[in-house]
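User: I've been trying to design a sequence by hand for this structure and keep getting stuck. Would you show me what you'd pick, starting by listing the structure so we're on the same page?

Assistant: Good idea, let's start from the same input. This is the structure you sent:
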């Protein structure tokens, strides 16, 4: 999301969030790195 384009309504926010989540979904290494962070290490 960009600070240059403010969200004006709920539908616009939903589109922006879904687009961002889809972009993250295509980066499995990024998702794995979230669980390796010391502060939030997954306890399995």
């Amino acid at each position: 999301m960009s600070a240059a384009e403010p969200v004006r309504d709920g539908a616009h926010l939903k589109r922006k969030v879904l687009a961002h989540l889809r972009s993250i979904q295509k980066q499995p290494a990024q998702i794995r790195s979230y669980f390796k962070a010391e502060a939030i290490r997954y306890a399995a």
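That's my pick for every position. To get oriented when you compare it with your attempt: The chain has a mean pLDDT of 83. The helical segments are 10-25, 28-36.
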